[in-house]
# Entry
Amino acid sequence: MKKTSSVPVHTKTSVMSTAVVQHIAKLANIPITSAEEKKLADGFTTTLGVVDQLKKLDTSTVEPTHQVTGLQNVLRDDGIDRDRMFTQEQALANALHTHNGYIVVEQILDQE
Amino acid sequence: MGTLNTLTLTDAIRKLHNNEITLDALYADVNSAVSSKNSALNIYLAQDKYAEKSAEKGTLSLLRGVPIAVKDNFLTVGLPTTASSKVLDGFMPPYESTVTSKLKKAGGVIFGKTNMDAWAHGSSTETSDYGPTKNPRNPEHLPGGSSGGSAAAVAADMCIAAIGSETAGSIRQPSAWCGVVGLKPTYGRVSRAGVVAMGSSLDCPGPITKTVEDAAILLNVIAGQDKYDATTSPVQVPDFTKMLKTGVKGVRVGIAYIDHEKLVGTPAAKAVEQAAEVLQSLGAIVDRVPLSQTLKDNTILTPDYAIGVYTVVQRGEVSSNLARYDGIRYGHDRTHFGDEAKRRIMLGTFTLSKGYADKYYVKAQQVRSLYIQNFRQLFSRYDVLISPTSPGYALKLGASKDNPMFGELEDMLEEPSSITGLPGINVPCGHDKKTNLYLGLNIVSAQWNEGLVLRAGYAFEQNTYWNSWLKKDK
# Structure
């Protein structure tokens, strides 16, 4: 899934700030400590430095490739495959918290 | 105790078929190797207690009940599957991966699950949340990764054959470092269904084995279109063992990448030059392919750019694939991700975010197209390209620590073929007697040409002394 939330603009191409790191951590739902922020920012800066090398290649007339073997529109029959269905027991077997045959999740809506 | 654990898959099948050996004796020797070595090498994360019982059911099928080690990112009913991450600690899959299901149907036994870099993020097996695996050839060194446990299981004769998966180098590089054979098939040749997803446009399951013939046997079993993976191809699957022994006479071989600045004068480059001479002496037509910084006919585009392409594409796909781990339906919550997974998820999120997707993700996919064009032109001129698999011998334990680009740099020679979906094989092509470590030859061909890759690998292996299972006097 393509993420669409915007990230604070960082001006220098290959330097990533801790502010950007905090924002990405929020988007990606990755809990990080403030001690990790600086280390991550430095690591991303190194990595983006390598990625920035791609700018040297002219791709103005090149189409991007998303699928390398040329398959297109592979669809399955619109039906139920009973061989793949889980029983309720199987579906719940790995959930940490269950109640009366349901998976228990954290409340995300207000009580009213 | 005997040494039946050192049998190749080919020999084990033949001997079981001819009743020259019994399954009991075979399992006794494999179990004995595991008991004596596993705690020191840290290869198996889980083992099937009933493996031998399952083996009896397979005796009349192709694989005759032989024990196969499987990387811990393949879902296996009855055996925990963690992808070496604490997020999936204790996870018991409710369904079976297509690959392991095919192995079982062919009479193979999933003997145990092997350690790997957590989520397959890495090239050392050091990012595993269950500790690093050590290289059985020299335990002070890394086995490579991410399929380091599977390659090590083969090298240590703690199984008869193994299965790994590769996104960019994860089968071939640990195979090179452990001195074993590893085949990365064409993207879409082998189903990804039931494999913990990493980079979905790149991931390829494949065999890690003692010999090239063993790899051909396993590829026959696991290849083919699968209705549970829409990216598997309808292209026909030949019998890969059939053309295996027909030699390389007239095969056009291009030597690639050894003029790269990181390789000039290295033992890896020299080993590949010698390998080229061997292939030439067997009748192949050998030529050097000059390295180029831009797309140009009859030259090979430097792998340097593939590092950037792979980094962006793979991290983008990682951020999407690992978004599903919420600790609700299965697994533990996102506080359990290790450092490497955090780095990859976050960078992928960044490069796919608004304002940056065109700059990074689309750009990377455009350069990916350049590599496809480059290989298409080269494969009109050459049948296979050869290069070192890794720039050097296995590095020491600890080498990957705090290096956010460790894997990308170690795997730079596989990345161009991975981002373009090509098949490639690693075969041992050099050995350092002092350290007991190996160098690997990477043989790559056009899509769906695994047959030729195996044939070239077989011819090389049979006419050299590098394979430790093929006893020959030097």
In short: Chain A has three helices and two strands. Confidence is low (pLDDT under 50) at residues 1-12 of chain A. Chain A touches chain B through 56 residues (CB under 8 Å).
